[in-house]
Write a structure and sequence with these properties.
The complex is a heterodimer of chains A (about 240) and B (about 220). Chain A has about 240 residues and is of the alpha+beta class. Chain A folds into two domains: about 160 residues, no CATH class; about 30 residues, no CATH class. Chain A is built from seven helices and three strands. The N terminus of chain A is likely disordered. Chain B is of the alpha+beta class and about 220 residues long. Among the domains of chain B are: about 110 residues; about 45 residues, no CATH class. In chain B, about 40% of the residues lie in helices and about 20% in strands. Chain B has seven helices and six strands; from the N terminus they run H-H-H-E-E-E-H-H-E-H-E-E-H. In chain B, the strands form two sheets. Chain B has a four-stranded antiparallel sheet with strand order 1-2-5-6, with helices on one face. Chain B has a two-stranded antiparallel sheet with strand order 3-4. The longest helix of chain B has about 50 residues. Classes of the chains: A alpha+beta (about 240), B alpha+beta (about 220). Chains A and B meet through helix 1, helix 2, helix 3 and helix 7 of A and helix 1, helix 2, strand 3, helix 4 and strand 5 of B.
């Protein structure tokens, strides 16, 4: 007997439409398998994502504490050499580091000019105020990437060379350190570096011989798969010429 | 024309439309498919449980390290940072064993903590910078730079612009008997109870003697 004939007989045997329950097991199992596979695939994805995140988290923490350690070194250097740091920051802003904004403010209050070239007077204030000549435009120079670097490379630019020289040794030293990359190999490959030093303007551009600075140090590690993981820590510090 | 081995049962169905039949082949194929899907899935499930436990322990080790190192960096004086610190006590983490033994027992897993401190001598810390360029005194009260005092002129004078200086910390500090920098290496060790594997994570940071400089100058 032909299969089609049986199916027809099953459907129309007593004149009414009736569902055949035989042969339902395999479709049910297939549906069950599908649900199983979807469930375990989801579980697998969730678990592997969770594991990957956790893996990154542990290595991320290692990089974070390196960056925090680098920040301690940077703060130590800034504390020990505030004048050198202030001068580097002043030059990056085209300011004359020897010019005192504090004395200038007092002189302006007394109706005098901010600059006083006479060293014998008590309110001696060596000029110029800014390191720009008559033909220079300070604002446009401070927008020029050739002078101040780019947002991606904030320590590049001619005016940042003093800051760069100041921050260059925010790194590991010693015989176990690679002299080029500044990285150490034990207990895992890692390093630190100052990545950004940004002067924050305060009080209507008058800085009163103090610079408020955003200092960013990054720490990095290479994880078990040799993938570099980086973390940055930013501190805001006040640097005063002493 | 014969179409299947189940001819008898199909014939039975025609004769008795209310009767349900499942053939042996269907049952065997069904069981085989079920096993095919469930055995690797079950295996994976068990593996996932193990991995989740391992992940959980790694995560706990990271949290322990964070709490210990944050305390060391933020709350403990530089001079007090040494390898005698009670790390389980300063971590502030719940400890099921309740004693200060540099071991934290969390969720039936014992995390052993140890600290290695390397004090960096002052003559090994070098601080470099570029010497501030010489800027001539202005001839007048003008705020604008005289010729030769502007940035372009200074930049063109290599001697004024690029005089690198390197000094050792021992040369610039007045605190000759003090140190200023310690390298801190925290190890968190534990044994994975599921796999029996020894696990270890190390975290490196540095602690500077900033309070001394703040209070008494460099």
């Amino acid at each position: 007997m032909c299969y089609k004939t049986i199916r027809k007989a099953q459907l129309n045997g007593d004149g009414a439409c009736r569902l055949n329950r035989s042969g339902m097991l395999i479709p049910m199992i297939l549906i069950g398998m599908f649900i199983f596979i979807v469930f375990f695939f989801t579980l697998m994805r969730w678990n592997s994502a969770n594991r990957r995140m956790n893996y990154q988290d542990v290595w991320g923490r290692k990089a974070l504490y390196l960056a925090k350690g680098g920040t301690q070194l940077a703060l130590l250097k800034v504390s020990m050499m505030p004048t050198e740091c202030y001068d580097a920051l002043s030059i990056s802003q085209l300011k004359n580091p020897y010019f005192s904004f504090k004395i200038a403010a007092k002189r302006v209050e007394d109706g005098k000019k901010p600059v006083n070239p006479n060293p014998k007077e008590t309110d001696y204030n060596p000029g110029p105020q800014f390191l720009t000549g008559a033909s220079d435009n300070r604002d446009s120079m401070l927008q020029d990437p050739a002078f101040v670097g780019t947002p991606e490379e904030p320590l590049n630019g001619d005016l940042n060379v003093f800051i760069k020289a100041f921050t260059d040794d925010i790194r590991f030293g010693g015989p176990e350190t690679d002299p080029i990359t500044g990285e150490r190999a034990a207990p895992y490959k890692h390093g630190i570096a100052a990545s950004k030093v940004k002067v924050l303007a305060v009080k209507g551009q008058q800085l009163y011989n103090k610079q408020t600075v955003e200092l960013t140090v990054k720490g990095w590690v290479y994880d078990g798969m040799n993938v570099r993981r980086e973390k940055e820590v930013t501190k805001i510090v006040e640097v005063e010429r002493k | 024309m014969v179409i299947s081995k189940n001819k008898k049962s199909r014939q039975c169905l025609i004769n008795n439309p209310g009767h349900r039949a499942v053939s042996m082949t269907e049952i065997i194929v069904g069981i085989a498919l079920f096993m095919l899907a469930s055995i690797p899935s079950f295996g994976y499930l068990m593996n996932s449980v193990k991995q989740t436990a391992a992940t959980d322990m790694e995560n706990t080790a990271g949290i322990i390290a964070s709490s210990v190192l944050d305390r060391i960096l933020d709350n403990i004086e530089y001079d007090a940072v040494d390898d005698t610190l009670k790390l389980d006590q300063i971590s502030g983490m719940p400890d099921d064993d309740g004693s200060d033994n540099n071991e934290l027992k969390i969720k039936a897993c014992v995390y052993k903590l140890s600290l290695e401190i390397k004090t960096i001598p002052n003559d090994k810390i070098e601080f470099g910078y570029r010497k501030t360029p010489y800027i001539k005194r202005q001839s007048s009260e003008s705020e604008i730079a005289d010729t030769g005092n502007d940035i372009k002129s200074i930049k063109n004078d290599a001697k004024r612009w690029n005089t690198p200086v390197k000094l050792k910390l021992s040369q610039i500090t007045k605190h000759k008997d003090k140190t200023f920098l310690k390298e801190v290496i925290l190890s968190v060790n534990w044994k994975d109870p599921v796999t029996g594997r020894d696990r270890s994570e190390k975290f490196v940071t540095m602690k500077a003697n900033l309070s001394l400089v703040e209070q008494h100058g460099g």
